[in-house]
Amino acid sequence: MSIIHKARPTQHLGKPVKRKEDPKLVTGRGLYVDDIKLPGMLYVAFLRSPYAHAKIKSIDVSKALRVPGVVAVYTGEDFRGKIGPIPTGWQLTGADLKVPEWPAVAYDKVRFIGEIVAVVVASDPYRARDALEAIEVDYEPLQAVVSVEDAIKPGAPQLHEGVPNNIAFRWRLKGGEDFEEISKKADKVIKQRMVNQRLIPSAMEPRGAVAEYNRYTGELTLWVTSQNPHVHRLLLSGVLGIPENKLRVIAPDVGGGFGSKIPVYPLEAIVARLAMDLGKPIKYVETRRENFLGTIHGRDHVEYVEAAIKNDGTVLGLRVRTLANMGAYLSTAAPGVPTILFGTMLSGPYKIRSVDVEVTGVFTNTIPVDAYRGAGRPEATYILERIMDLVARELNMDPADVRRKNLIPEAPYAAITGLTYDSGKYLEVFERALKIADYEGWRKRQSEARKEGRLIGVGIASYIEVCGLAPSRIARATGFGLGLWESAIVRVHPSGKVTVYTGASPHGQGEDIAFAQIVAEELGVSLEDVEVIHGDTALVQFGMGTYGSRTTPVGGGAIALAARRVREKARKIAAALLEAREEDVVFEAGRFYVKGVPEKAVTIQQVALASYTAEKLPPGVEPGLEATVFYDPENFTFPYGTHVCVVEIDRETGGVKILRYVAVDDAGIIVNPMLAEGQVIGGALQGIAQALYEEAIYDSSGNLLTAGFNDYMIPTAREAPKIESYFYETPSPHNPLGVKGIGETSTIASTPAVVNAVLDALAHLGVRHIDMPLLPSKIYKVLKEKEVG
Amino acid sequence: MYPPRFSLIVPSTVEEALDALSRYGEEAKVLAGGHSLIPLMKLRLASPKYLIYIGKIQGLSYIREEAGKISIGCMTTHAMIESSDLLRKKNLLLSETASKIGDLQVRNMGTIGGSLAHADPAADYPAAITALEGEIVARSVKGERVIKAQEFFKGPFSTALRSDELLVEVRVPSMEGYFGAAYEKLVFRATDYAIVGVAAVLELDRGGAIQRARVALTGVGSTPVRAKSVEEELIGKQASKDLIVKVSTRASEGLNPPSDIRASSEYRKAMAAVMTKRALLRALERAQEKIASNG
Question: How far apart are CA A46 and CA A132, in angstroms?
Fold first, then answer.
């Protein structure tokens, strides 16, 4: 963990302070949804479809009702009109979007294995599961389709009425010059089909909900594993027909999400409905297997890429045709992920002059796909970084030189996709990363190793990411259902202690300490004196939540602005206390004093008390010391960086070993380098996982073959290489702190860095491309073919 | 993960356990460390009516040398086998095999008796026990019998144990002399079941000629497989790396391994040879070290 270029001196920001919540969490004293136990609570179990595509002819629940402990059994018909369809919150514009009905419980047809077809309520979760086995469903199986390429073929099984050829949308973005025109100026056009495989988010805590209804007040309290409790409240109030102010949504401790806890799912709607209907607290928490079958998946693109290039390595333009697998229904943010968050990033940190991308969203008989860490941006970066290496291969150039030829030297920069990059020294950071990783040295070692028959490869990935998701006007223009600002209240109590109410909803990121650092920096209070409250709609003003690397830039930005407003009010009160003119009062490290007289000061704590005793307030100043800010940034933030990976391949087994991994990232001002490094390490491992291990695999009838950690191969600590993380700070001018967001950068960069390294190791054998994950068995097969051929 | 209803029987002596087995045999499962059985029950893939938990019985967890053999109690954990000085000295293969099972949590809970009785075709011990020509001691109310390793494994998740029998002990040779052995496990993730696992035992004479060679593979068939053609090619010959490299290719002969999402049958077949070579090379190195240190 090291900041190799610091933008400006800071007091509390930039300090590796330990997280506040860890003692509680690591000793098992956290409060997760599954820890909530209420008197008289009943438990729910879901009968899930064993067919990927079938008509439901009839359901007989009579035997299930006779299982001891069973209170009630429901089918889809019972909920029609009582639970509205599961909403799609990103109504993509200009793309002929089709949003078919997603019933919370299927009533006429099932469209993926794992879809809920019946609901049991029982006195304990074991009995509830026993009763599932007693429900008899008569299905009429239909032919299923799981691959996007099959689903759009004529004659393919049709999932939804009114959605011909299973096409959910067609979205196109053309930026810069026309691709056909620019191809005429090119020396070559190279082509590659690439698959960005389906991944399963696998948060440590599965999803779940507990609901309690007070029939006398009409208030419903819902504890739910959510990254955005206010969004959950708003959408569920519509789904359930309950006024928003009668619905309290609480995200207690939440054990990770990676995007999978953004959407509103059937489960929370069903649990809430049952609590109202039965008048008893209701609980449901997924088992791990149900988490695989009932929670969104991520990625899943087939890309057809063409790059128009010059013989000197210049990439002039890119044409991308993408088939994006949406699964069986459109989840909350799903339409925006493979389009807006993907297509706008296809020129990346490069001076590409033409981008023409068309994305076809396709329904298949699989679990719905939505935002997963990086969400669209890893897919775009993967294409770009693979293309840079393929250009190098085609022209027999060093992949580093191809990037030097194409990188934007520095920002601000108006990208052809319509985005304005904020700040950065793209080329400088690239060179620093190569130097730290000893790129040239590895090239020498690689050629020596080749002489001995050893396979060493070096991979580079430069990326830029649009994050800090905001501003609202752009979000709305793309069809996003809400604004994308963030809210904060900074409240200084009479004793000078501070409570922060944030609309962000951290779920493992450690923002409690990061936000305290921001307040401490702005108000000069100590870190211990700042408490952060989030995740409860009854306590916190409306907020957008945590995703898209927005929590520090947007949520933190709101807190910084609120703290500054508090400081300015405090300055007025301090001036009255010091009997000085406001403009003569200086603020420094938590103290106000008259310019030139630092020994005669009042502290922020003294000012706080005075603001509540209120006898010495200047005219027009209200009592109390707090500020509320709803902060809507002017623009996104754009973290960027370069990652370098060195691998060696075991020639006999095809196994890949990472020898070195260096990450140099510019996420703007680093609030807490320990947390930032944690994001880089975790993100890198998640990206490495996509490159080398993870893949959600379906068979042709729609069975998920990887529905457990035995078969869905999340790497463990034993597979984790040492990740060397370095930060280069250029402050983003787009938010008050100069921060850019660090939650997804490493997931975006690491996947292509590793894949490029593996393919670089095989380059001299004539291997161009292998689709992920690069399992040893796959590499071995290619090696054999090349040796034989 | 919610298993169906079952009754738990917790005997405090082996006799009580055998009594319960004789009564409930077909409908009962013996619970030891629980690392294979419990997940199957949670997924409702196994639903025994009775679970007989033998973890409260004293004296089933031991590793001791008796009459040229090392006897290991059925409740001995992988972690104990991994760290046993006796095994490290006199049967390194078994302790090395244990060290490559699962992760630390699994090794702290999982037992050798449970693993062998479960007979997962990709488990690690079956290869080691087969290569070591070990013995399995089974007891029932009718008495005790000793089953040879090569007769113990009947198929995937199927053994020679009868439904009223309890696996009480495992015996492996106490290896004195110029022995070398090694277990090579090919996995994509450290905690996984073997894609291919190979246990190899070599015994040399003072001059370096191979007296005994045993090679057993896991993950390539429904039961552990002995690579007899490799063994035959080695026995009686002067040990050398070249010889091992040459004969190891024969480990793939006649195999018809399973295909799954990780690896094809062809890959497993090819890796059988690679892992056999690696196991034998390490076994040879260890045997030669013994000759060198005994001068």
Answer: 7
